Amino acid sequence: MSTTTRRRATFAVAALTSALALAACESQGEPSSGSSVVGGGAVENAKVAFLMPDLASTRYELQDKPLFEAKMKELCPSCTVIYQNADSDASKQQQQANSALAQGAKVLVIDPVDSAGVASTVQAAQSQGAKVIAYDRPSTQAKADFYVSFDNEKIGNLIATSLVEQLKKTNAQGGILEINGSPTDAAAGLIKKGVHSSVDTSGFTLLAEYDTPNWQPAKAQEWTAGQITRFGSKIVGVVAANDGTGGGAIAAFKAAGTKVPPVTGNDAELAAAQRIISGDQFNTISKPIKIVAEAAAESAYSLLQGKAPESKATVFDTPAELFVPEVVTKENIKKVLFDSGIMKASQACTGAYAAGCTELGIK
Hints:
Blueprint: H1 3-27, E1 47-52, H2 59-75, E2 80-85, H3 90-102, E3 105-110, H4 119-127, E4 131-135, E5 146-150, H5 152-169, E6 175-180, H6 186-199, E7 205-211, H7 217-231, E8 235-240, H8 243-256, H9 270-278, E9 284-286, H10 289-304, E10 313-315, E11 318-323, E12 326-328, H11 333-339, H12 345-348, H13 354-360
Parallel strand pairs: 1-2, 1-3, 3-4, 4-5, 5-11, 6-7, 6-8
Antiparallel strand pairs: 9-12, 10-11
């Protein structure tokens, strides 16, 4: 056999061996080196981490967690959800993410305590082949694989515009306080931007504004108490970025023994719905958590299969799906929260709130 013939035979055997090895791998469900499928091509028994930011907002434990887990179980019965709450501690959240990755999580769904600081977590996950979904709050310094949220800038504009319209309707004379969310939360920054887009052109004076550390209601209450001492009856309205900070503001007015002006909110928490029913809170935002929690689960499942979730927007250079919220006031609370089934009368219409529910036809 000539040297050329022997060389050709060797190449043929090598090619055949490689082809057989590749076929064997594919027959066992393993993708070729060019595959983008997460977790080696097998969704079964995959692990997904659901990492929430704080306990100050009751929604994460009561709504987001069970709704996300239920949808993941429906989509992938054998998948495991690793749930952790950072309790407003960015370092703790990073540790929780590292732990989830060490346990084999292939997708991290993370609502960042610190939208900028979460960059190292995002990069660490992606360097290990895991995907990252920013949930509710975006990642600003590192690009996540996807972002799921309600339109936060729209939320800010809606709650502020609703308040301004009410103040003009009642011919209120005075100024507004603005209570923003956490300065480390980019979603709070978007809400703040939306609030200013309405307040700055409203004709009402912005008396003062405050960025609430970690969204803590107690901090919002403390700050509002100081402004009541400073401005007194000049305060005719308060734009609060969520129900927790709004509740803190309302508590400050009550503690001061002064009339509570219209106060906004956001999240449609049970306590906020009760305050609206009783007349203590002016508005909130209905953004059914079921919508975003299930969308996040569907996006996570797509990423596990190596598919890119459908993007309908871009936020901080990240493909995103944003949902449109709805303002809730005393006039439409029955229809939006109760007739829709989002909230049950048996939950809200208790004790001191029963009379208000009867007045509004909530039963």
